[in-house]
Amino acid sequence: MEKTTGRDGRARVGTQVVWAGEDKDNWQSATQVPVVHSVAFGYRSIDEWLNIARGEAPGHIYSRNTNPTVVAFEEKVRCLEGAEAATSFSSGMAAISNTLFTLLSPGDRIVSVKDTYGGTNKLFLEFLPRFQIEVTMCETANHQAIESAVVRGCKVLYLESPTNPTIKIIDLARLASVAHRHNVLVIVDNTFATPINQSPHELGADLVVHSATKFLGGHADALGGVICGPMHLVKQVHHFREITGACLDPSAAYLLLRGMKTLNLRVRQQNQSALKIAHFLEAHPLVTKVFYPGLESHENHDIACRQMRGFGGVLSFSLKGGFDSVKAFLPRLRYAHLAANLGAVETVAGPPATTSHVECTPKEREASGIPEALIRYSVGIEDTEDLIDDLSQGLEHLSGQLAEGGSFGDACRGSGFNSLLE
Q: Domain of 342: which CATH number?
């Protein structure tokens, strides 16, 4: 995957994550992009100030609109995604909501899938309908149903692949082709794949969105979001964002920039570890199902092989015994934060009820096809064998409790554990 950068013409992705967006001379010849905390930028010449304010000359006037540190982050993502323009936001959900409210008006219709991230799902179920925007949510794996919904007429097709947290794969090229034949804008959430593993623009997406909080930053210390795409669309979304005010803070932009310099290395390790862990879990007798596109058992493994360069650092799996097993197993893990995050250098794990779909009710999660007993496991950059050993000891502990019964068995009567003891 080669993209154009301002510094050296063409460079491979491992070089781009380090250099892209940082080819300008920094203050006092600093080798790192400075954090510019200034809210406003002053000019002695009114004419110069006017030219910058009108967008007729490069520069900044107010950090809610643009900021030097933030622009460097946007440029790095733009280069990695091979897009014409990019603009950033205070969080991933700010990026998604600002984009949708920019492009959609009362009376418009949007088509999406049921397995989108919980916050996105809430926009579809609760907020967009309040503005008389019609929402059609299709079964995620049913490409024919999605195509039929698009053909019936809509303004936007919103896709997420891999999905959060069920790790389903959508044929982006197939659906984008249908959408464009009917003048429909295609938006793809590329958070799980990252630009290292997938290039939605090359597959036909008009706009690509990221929760930069996750893999792009990679260190769980900065919130941010970003969209990339054609200049005319990004300008529209940027205008909405600068008026509504969901701007990225320059300190967060700096942390995201710093984190992105190791993106290629981190994702490469996470890809390798996640595939080995998925194979380990799939063979374990206490695991009923593993969701990971790198497994041949995944229903759309063939699509993932066509459109992805790596299968990602997130997998999910279900345990025998339901949610009681989840509650018994997760606290035993030594090398995993039990937290509502993913894409970090540390492994992070948790069920949808406390992570991706905490905003949704159990009924809403069920309607989206998300089991309550699912565990989302975001693989960090730890040694692969240590993570497998950690999962193994946790499952061994669970197995021992199931075999021995005792207080754990008493607490779980009626939950499905007793059948496992037979």
A: 3.90.1150.10
